[in-house]
Amino acid sequence: xxxxxxxxxxxxxxxxxxxxxxxxxxxxxxxxxxxxxxxxxxxxxxxxxxxxxxxxxxxxxxxxxxxxxxxxxxxxxxxxxxxxxxxxxxxxxxxxxxxxxxxxxxxxxxxxxxxxxxxxxxxxxxxxxxxxxxxxxxxxxxxxxxxxxxxxxxxxxxxxxxxxxxxxxxxxxxxxxxxxxxxxxxxxxxxxxxxxxxxxxxxxxxxxxxxxxxxxxxxxxxxxxxxxxxxxxxxxxxxxxxxxxxxxxxxxxxxxxxxxxxxxxxxxxxxxxxxxxxxxxxxxxxxxxxxxxxxxxxxxxxxxxxxxxxxxxxxxxxxxxxxxxxxxxxxxxxxxxxxxxxxxxxxxxxxxxxxxxxxxxxxxxxxxxxxxxxxxxxxxxxxxxxxxxxxxxxxxxxxxxxxxxxxxxxxxxxxxxxxxxxxxxxxxxxxxxxxxxxxxxxxxxxxxxxxxxxxxxxxxxxxxxxxxxxxxxxxxxxxxxxxxxxxxxxxxxxxxxxxxxxxxxxxxxxxxxxxxxxxxxxxxxxxxxxxxxxxxxxxxxxxxxxxxxxxxxxxxxxxxxxxxxxxxxxxxxxxxxxxxxxxxxxxxxxxxxxxxxxxxxxxxxxxxxxxxxxxxxxxxxxxxxxxxxxxxxxxxxxxxxxxxxxxxxx
Length: 650
What we know:
GO terms for molecular function: 4-alpha-glucanotransferase activity. The protein is an alpha/beta fold. 34% of the residues lie in helices and 18% in strands.
């Protein structure tokens, strides 16, 4: 069998159209590496893909031509048979009362040939939310200033922001990803390049709030960090590590303290993943090499080996990692609980990165489901003629199916743990992922088909179980019908006003925006309103040698079109509050208002395509949480968002 035939059987598209409509065929060498990176999976004999049934709805599956009859089938939950039957025809109608879950379907035809596939029973739709129309305050948490933090926004600052947002009528607070990064490489600060999506970044812990913490003599250092223009990640990480280790020593030295019981309960609840993560971090610190170069006993995660490691000389260090994660979890939970206490119908809105770093915990822990030899990206288009390689490893279809989609469920569950809404970055990746083998340029990748229906079913399961709205970041070129299909599963769209313009580049009116969506003026990868209006972003990108893709005249025309759109709604000013007022009038159920825009920040949080040329993910806000209330025009904001406040469903 040649490479291209084998690739087609595995759902790998061996070519693609670029932004100019030109066809590219993936090179044979690159294609072979992509094939080699995929786990071995026996093709299904009688069904095309995992079977998905929506609870309470009738569902039928048409069997492949290979099936002979009579054919018997069983649906199993573990070893328990929950339904079984026999069919004489090529179509099976499934029972309507099957329990929710990810089960296994086993089939045997008249020739005694077997087949097996996941059988997923899911809610008919994802959780719809318990509010009509609301708005959230969107914040880059790391950039928050306060009179007491250590140079980076933390979970105590988040509590203050929640109180501020609630006082202004917001239904919640939206945050950048809080995923665990690499604690020994703090300068690698992009929240979208995580070590693990299952655990939290300890830099957001308020160290002084730890019950075991005792103040030390680092006052001058902390004062300097608080006054710094940018987040000084290396020095902050050093200061916080010192403080957390001192607190841990006090905790560890008192095994009879009341907190020990709660810590043990947390460890038991999050096992075995927490133990694996803690062991991985200790080993990573010790070896200082990629995990695939570790001793053979650690090349694959093993719970018995982890338990033995934890019981050995390194056990205290393992316990320290667990202690840090426990306190991060407690402090984020306190924020979540505060939103509930204040009656905020959305609560926390958290962002979920599209992939993980290949050298991190998730890639080690899920070597079947995550392809570490491949990077997720995008093919060449008008904005990026060379294509994009994001340097992140993503899930693969075969590995997820073999494991009953458990790795995907674990990731969703961790993300939704304290969230009333989550945004899935690059949701098109649930349908297909563009992957590039390591060592190759971004234009020599291929699209790999993903089990969309199964992933949406699992997403609906976790959404309902965690009472969490799911928003799919569906920007860019989207296949026909894709957004409608997401909507049929209750997945909301993500609408950015800067992109919502018609054929003459006029901004679309308020009636254009559909209800089940989050709407925002911009994103972290786009200019702030002040930067956009002043053309600062165009000047900055040109100074960095980047083509902004827009001329000054085109921007001035856009400003003119914005003014027309606002005046069509009777809004006669053109500041950011006017834009917020316009967006608040749309039918969308959720509006995100960026704190940078309320404070008039000119520079954007991140410029894609840059690393050190721009202070990405390091910029701090001009006002502290203590002074924000007077830095924001609350009357203008109240007028803009009045019809979205106090919007919990009754």
